[in-house]
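Let's practice the habit of predicting before peeking. Look at the sequence and jot down your guess about where helices and strands might fall. Then scroll down.
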Amino acid sequence: MDQVPPKELHWDSANSPEARHNNARVASSLERLVAAGKRMAVLTVLSGWNAADVVKCLLKMKTKRARRVFEWLPDDVSLPVLVELDPELRSVLFEASTRKKFRKIVSRVSPDLAIELLETLPPDTHDDLIADRKDADVIRQSLSADDDSAAAHMRHGVLTVPVGWTIGEVVSHLRKTSDQFARLDMIFVLEQDKRLVGYLRSRDLLLNPDDTCVADIVQKDTVTVDSSADQEEVLRLAEARSASVIAVVDANGRFLGGIAPPELAEIAREEVEEDMLKMGGVSPDTTQFDTPGQIARRRLPWLLGGLVGSTIAAIAIVSYEDALAESAILASFIPVVLATAGNAGIQASTVSVQVLTSGAEWRGDLPSRFYRELRGALLNGLIVGTVVGILVLIGSLFIAIEKPGLLVLTSIVALAIVTVIAASVGSMVPFLLRALKQDPAAATGIFITTSNDVFGVLAFFIVASLIYLG
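Done guessing? Here is the structure:
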């Protein structure tokens, strides 16, 4: 690839083949400058770029070169770049050579941004990185909170005012400290001992005279959660109460922080990602940067669980060895049975998990809901079985098939039963796991697939023995 002169290096944000070709050449040329140790040349090129373009360029470079560029960046550029970078990718830039820069950045940002940055970095580096901060103890306590708790998601940088103030005092305080708050979407009113009284709306500051007492207009219907509350409970509470602002308190009722729409959106995103990973039989802690050892540790248990289920299914098949020997064509139906059972079970369990996680569960409707699920599964099974039966009849016109009529009947009855069993297991297991205080999303992975493989194989051979071989 031709080298681009440094003075001509520029990033093209357009979404076109020409832009992609140009950007590939730019990233390659910058890598060569980095490899040659030409720090000033690199900084001269990047000086006119915005943070988003710098991040896009870093992502196209080898991690070793990207770390060096980040190390060279001036502080007023490296912070916006780090903020712009996806949280899961920040740890890629962290190593011994960039540790000093990270420490300097962490010491200058707000508590919330410091916590956000530290959460993506190795835990054994946290004490060193926050050593220069006055609020190190608060940050350390937040980092030690359970990742799925309200404390881990609350915002520390929220506006709090004493209940004895007036609106004029609140506005004056806000003007003096406005640079401390990234957003003004939460205003909590506290007693002197930090116990929560309520909250103010932004409109309260605009529509009331300066001499209005906060105590006279404070909204006391505040939705509160304990700092140890699970993030799923926080999300359900926000949806049930239509709350846009939630106060987080400690065991003694003292105010700790707040949760607003940005935090609720982050919780919802994490829940979706966690459920997706569990549905795929992957540990929720998995990231794209896992080492081979971490990949094995986080995925092997699920694979071994699947192996156990597959072994049981294989034993079930071997137990019908005589049936297979008598009619080898039955073996061709095994993949059909396994696929149908697995898909029907995952479909039913996915709907159940969606009901549980959305909080839209009507407990009085559960029996009728299971009944509807079973009737739908029976209908699907009959249709799939009929389609397979038609294929058997068409195949019998070209190859010799013994007793095709009975084989068609076997396929219809067996697949109908298999689908009903799979749907029953898939729809009920998530509710059972929830009753056992386990995550229902785990049901849609290997557990449902392997259990339905076993039940499906047994049901098929029992039906085949009674109808086709009987």
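How did you do? The chain has a mean pLDDT of 83.
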